[in-house]
Design a protein that fits this description.
The chain is of the alpha+beta class and 294 residues long. It has 2 domains: 92 residues, Phosphorylase Kinase, domain 1, CATH 3.30.200.20; 176 residues, Aminoglycoside phosphotransferase (APH), C-terminal lobe (Aminoglycoside 3'-phosphotransferase, Chain: A, domain 2). The protein is 45% helix and 13% strand. It contains 9 helices and 10 strands.
């Protein structure tokens, strides 16, 4: 994660290069990626070092979606490529009008439209649901050696089952991180956001985030989940490959919590190790009602 001061220093350099004012810039979110609000309804997105290809893809996907009449956050037209600031890609976007966060019912129609689109001509790459997991396990300072070994075995087992998924819906463009936080709703439009993980893969992956919210986290009610399935037109939990995707998603959010616990054990350690205990079968059956980390 980047500190506010480090992020602001990168922002100043990026704005100077782009000819934009960073005066009175306001942080929207500072994390693995940082968002800053600039003057004239512009938002700067500062990605992680080494994420150049992902930043290029985000811009291409956003422009392609708008060309396909899918409402999406829009990059500035005159800055076509990310700026390289000390090895960190920085992109600039039009700020959305006043909006609220989306619901699972809001995201479902957008996912259906996305999954029905023809594959674009530019390269998207293939979905990798295991990206950075091994590194996060290795860097999880609150783990003992036995716990770390267990997580690496779990990761290896899931890689194997992922490679042999049963037949499902036709492969398509997938958002990659399709949860309701990546939807913004204005009085007239529902927008899709954040295309860092957009790629080619099984559309069921996009549906699994909401299904896991229902069955594992208890953050999606029965009524909300039914509305999501009705709006999309399918229930991913009836597919034979769903347990594998569910298990991968649960491992991802557990490793995310362990990453936070390494940085702040007092604040996040208990939740991270509760999640690990759930995966190891020590907390009974789902739902486990995990708490938000971040």
């Amino acid at each position: 994660m980047t500190s506010v001061d480090d992020s602001h220093a990168l922002l100043l350099k990026a704005c100077a290069t782009a000819g934009l004012s960073a005066e009175q810039a306001e942080p929207i979110r500072i994390g693995e990626n940082a968002l800053w609000r600039l003057r004239n309804q512009v938002v700067a997105r500062i990605s992680r070092q080494g994420q150049w290809e992902a930043a290029v893809r985000e811009l291409a996907v956003a422009r392609w979606l708008r060309a396909c009449d899918v409402p999406a956050v829009r990059p500035l037209d005159h800055i076509r490529e990310p700026l390289d600031v000390d090895g960190v890609p920085v992109t600039f976007w039009h700020e959305l009008p006043e909006h609220r966060s989306g619901t699972v019912a809001d995201i479902a129609p957008l996912l259906r439209r996305l999954h029905e689109l023809p594959v674009p001509e530019f390269s998207l790459g293939r979905l990798d649901p295991f990206v950075r997991l091994a590194a996060r396990i290795d860097a999880a300072a609150t783990l003992d050696s036995e716990q770390r070994q267990w997580l690496h075995r779990r990761l290896a087992d899931l890689r194997t089952t992922w490679s042999g998924l049963p037949a499902g819906r036709p492969e398509s463009v997938v958002h990659g991180d399709a949860w309701r936080g990546n939807v913004a709703v204005t009085p007239t439009t529902v927008y899709l956001l954040d295309f860092e993980r957009t790629s080619l893969g099984p559309p069921e992956w996009d549906l699994t985030a909401t299904a896991v919210g229902h069955s594992t986290f208890s953050t999606v009610s029965d009524q909300q989940y039914d509305a999501f399935c009705e709006a999309y037109g399918a229930d991913v939990t009836t597919w034979a490959g769903y347990p594998t995707l569910r298990d991968i998603r649960e491992l991802r959010v557990t490793c995310f919590a362990l990453q936070h616990a390494a940085a702040d054990p007092k604040r996040h350690g208990r939740e991270a190790h509760h999640r690990l205990a759930c995966l190891q079968g020590q907390r009974g059956p789902r739902p486990w009602s995990w708490s938000v980390v971040g």
